[in-house]
Every structure is written in C-alpha cells, then in structure tokens.
Design goal:
alpha+beta; Ribosomal Protein L22, Chain A; five-stranded antiparallel sheet; globular
Length: 232
C-alpha cells in the first residue's frame, strides 16, 4: 500500500486576517487510508494518480493554515470558485507538480504556484499587455517574470471568481517592485474597478504569487507588515 507523505509547510505568512502558505508533498496518496467524504472520493477517482496527490496536498495545506478543529468540506460554487462549507472566509488553492499553495482570508484573495516551464512563452500573447511586454523585454532571463505576470493574473482571476475576464483585456499588473517583490493588480471590466495588493517570490524552482483585495485598509502588502515563518 502507498503511504501519503504529509504536506510540509515551507513558508507561512500571516497578515491581518489572512494566512497564505506554500508547501511540498511526496506525490503519492492512498485513497483508502484517508477520510474523504463521498463527493471528494468521487472527484479523486476520476483523476490520474499524479493529479490525485496534487488535489489532496493543496487541500491538506489549506486545512493546516485554516487551523480549525473540524475539517469542513472544500466545495465549489456554480462558477468554480472554491469555498469551505459553513466557513465565512475566502479561500484560494493552487498546485504544480510537488508544490502547493493555499490562502484563507476575510477578504477576496488568490494564490498561485507554478514550476518554471517554457510553455508560458508559447502562451505569452494570450495574457501580456503592451506594458507587460515593456517590463520583461530587457530581462536577461524572461522566464521567471513571465511566470510572475501569469501567476499574478491567475491570482486576480481567482480572487474575483466570476469568470468572463480576459487576461489581456481586463487584468492589469503595475507598480512592480522587484526589491520588495510586490505589485499592484487591477481588474477593469465593464463598470467594475477592483484593486489588489500582490506579493510574489521568484524561488529557484517555482514562482509563488498571492493577492489580497484592497478594502481601505490602513496598511497593505506593500508596507511589508507581514509576520513570516520561513523554513527555506
């Protein structure tokens, strides 16, 4: 029988009423030895073994940072946005190979983890605005920055959670500060204009990006008021 190697939290960040984390897992899961509900088990049986481990790991990481005595079901609303049943919090999850990310907050949020891949270059024209192109054109290696921009827009899309958004047409990244690893994100769509604080980390193997919708807070992610627990 295959034993599931628990998720290891590599970094957890707490900001006001938000928690975000990145982790790694062993890549194997024994479905018979886990306490899945019927809906979860049905979903898992439809996935490949690799996708099963990614699916489970991202949710295990979410439950770890949620720090609840129970294990509420992680479900999806009609538009595909995840939520915890009976929990009045916004959540976001992500996985890429043996990496996973999770976020829980009182405010709309998004998290994205991506291992580096040349695929992002082939799809760049689907998500880069002219300003994005200007930002990366002088980079000696554009791959990390392409992933950062793609991940940031994925985070905005997840935080909004209502689809109908074009990555080039409606999602904008500006005020990118490589030293502070921060940026400003905006969704401009019809009569909607939402603003998000973005943080990113260009790690050796992956890009980790997360965002939080602004709600007139006295301080935001750009102010570096994070309490970090690093294990890298």
């Amino acid at each position: 029988m295959i034993s599931f190697v628990p998720v290891k939290i590599l970094e957890k960040i707490i900001y006001q009423k938000s928690v975000v984390a990145i982790g790694q897992h062993g890549g194997k899961v024994d479905l018979e030895r886990r306490n899945f509900n019927e809906e979860e088990f049905t979903i898992l049986k439809s996935l490949s073994p690799r996708k099963q481990s990614e699916w489970v790991a991202s949710r295990d990481l979410l439950y770890l940072i949620a720090d609840r005595p129970d294990r509420p079901q992680c479900l999806y609303d009609p538009l595909g946005k995840p939520y915890l049943l009976g929990v009045d919090k916004h959540i976001s999850i992500s996985h890429s190979a043996l990496w996973c990310g999770a976020m829980i907050s009182d405010f709309p949020c998004g998290v994205d983890v991506q291992i580096y891949s040349d695929t992002v270059r082939r799809i760049a024209d689907r998500f880069l605005t002219p300003d994005d192109v200007l930002f990366i054109q002088n980079a000696e290696d554009d791959l990390p920055y392409l992933h950062m921009l793609w991940g940031a827009k994925e985070c905005l899309y997840k935080a909004y959670g209502k689809r109908k958004l074009g990555f080039r047409e409606h999602l904008f990244i500006s005020e990118i500060n490589l030293e502070n690893q921060s940026a400003l994100g905006e969704i401009i769509f019809e009569d909607i204009h939402l603003t998000y604080d973005i943080k990113f980390k260009l790690l050796p193997d992956v890009v980790w990006v997360y965002c939080l919708e602004r709600h007139g807070l006295a301080s935001d992610l750009h102010q570096q008021l994070w309490s970090e627990n690093k294990n890298f």
